[in-house]
Amino acid sequence: IRAVVAALPAGSRWIVLTDTLPVARFNAEGIPQQAVRHGDRTSLTVAAASILAKVLRDRLMDTLDAEFPVYGWKSNKGYGSAAHRTALRTHGPTPHHRTLFIRSTLSVPE
User: What confidence tier does 22 reach under pLDDT thresholds 50, 70, 90?
Assistant: First the structure.
């Protein structure tokens, strides 16, 4: 998130989020932000951005699955399925795993 916010064009005036978590810790530029609960239901712009993000995520998961097939990213698309959590415990994390997901997965037995 930090890299995305930092890459915004100069003069960007607003960040719209699709959940209720602000990105304050990633927003060193101090750009105002608005969390829009269920924004993909109420805003065409947010809905379009959500679709694009999901398509890009799915493509990334397909690519990562080819490199790290034991995690099953092609089928779970980044969601923590039971098989994915087992693979994470067995094989450890990759640089692509989110830190919070790793901590929660490795600290909670199945």
Answer: low
* 8 Å CB contact between 70 and 85: no
Report the distance separating Cα 77 and Cα 62, nearest Å.
8
Strand partners, 33: 15
d(CA 70, CA 78): 13
Does residue 109 carry a pLDDT above 60?
no
The alpha carbon dihedral of 66, 98, 78, 23 has a sign of negative
| β-sheet bridge partners, residue 15 | 33
Residue whose tokens read 């960007």: 12
- Residue 92 makes CB contacts below 8 A (sequence gap 6+) with none
Q: What is the pLDDT of residues 39-75, one digit of tens each?
A: 888 888 888 988 998 999 999 999 999 999 999 999 9
Give DSSP secondary structure letters for 70-97. Answer: GG-HHHHTTS--HHHHHHHHHH---TTS
Q: Tokens 């901590």 belong to which residue?
A: 103
